[in-house]
Amino acid sequence: MAIFSVYVVNKAGGLIYQLDSYAPRAEAEKTFSYPLDLLLKLHDERVLVAFGQRDGIRVGHAVLAINGVDVNGKYTADGKEMLETDTFKLHCFQTLTGIKFVVLADPRQAGIDSLLRKIYEIYSDFALKNPFYSLEMPIRCELFDQNLKLALEVAEKAGTFGPGS
User: Fold this and answer.
1) Contact 104, 89 (CB under 8 A)
2) Please, are residues 115 and 161 in contact by the beta-carbon 8 Å criterion?
3) Is 48 helix (H, G, I), strand (E, B) or coil?
4) Distant-in-sequence, close-in-space partners of 8: CB < 8 Å, separation ≥ 6
5) Which residues lie closer than 8 Å to 103 by C-beta, 6 or more apart?
6) Stretch 135-151: mean pLDDT, rounded?
7) From CA 53, how far away is CA 27, in angstroms rounded?
8) Which domains does the chain have, with CATH numbers?
9) Which of 8, 12, 35, 146 is the most buried (most CB within 10 A)?
10) pTM
11) What integer is the mean pLDDT of 23-41?
């Protein structure tokens, strides 16, 4: 089991942090472009296009697969969202201030919800409390990097975070 990537997106939609912690095999490599021209929303456990159109895809169309892989979207408790395929799960946690924490992980990886809370805690402790960090700007903090990598190692080995970890 593995955690592939961690992304932090500011409230304007800009990528302010990216960590690729796992190198997938070459035949499973996928390319994503950001930002998407389409806005996807979850409706009755189906992922639908809510805004935009491109290459014959229009509002109301359901997304059944990405690159031939079935897609199941779900809302979870506490504002978390999940997009599940056969090869990965994309978990998203949006804070009240609009910062989004996104984790791409193996579908069998457990404890991602607690990992998202831990990443938010690390962001609060090592990025926001850093006097040289400006909000909405890219995160360039060595302590944030070190603690995030440590949290990912713990999550991959143990699968969950207990109280006080």
Assistant:
1) yes
2) yes
3) strand
4) 15, 16, 17, 18, 99, 100, 101, 102, 119, 123, 139
5) 3, 5, 6, 7, 90, 91, 92, 112, 115, 116, 119
6) 92
7) 30
8) 3-23+85-158 (3.30.450.70)
9) 8
10) 0.65
11) 48
One DSSP character per residue, 58-85 reads: -TT-EE-EETTEE-EEEE-GGGEEEEE-
Residue 2 contacts residue 111 (beta carbons within 8 Å) = no
**DSSP-based three-state secondary structure for 38:** coil
Amino acid 1: pLDDT: 59
Give the model confidence (pLDDT) of 48-92 as tens digits: 666 555 555 555 656 666 655 566 655 544 555 788 887 888 899
Distance, CA of 148 to CA of 129 (rounded, Å): 15
Cis-peptide into 131, omega within 30 deg: no
Q: What own/partner pairs with CB < 8 Å and gap ≥ 24 does 18-27 have?
A: 19/145, 19/148, 19/149, 19/152, 21/149, 21/152
Q: Specify the length of the chain in residues.
A: 165
Which pairs count as long-range contacts for 50-57, CB under 8 Å and 24+ apart, including other chains?
Answer: none
For 127, list phi and psi in degrees, rounded to 5. Answer: -100, -55
Angle formed by the axes of helices 142-158 and 112-122, to 10°?
160
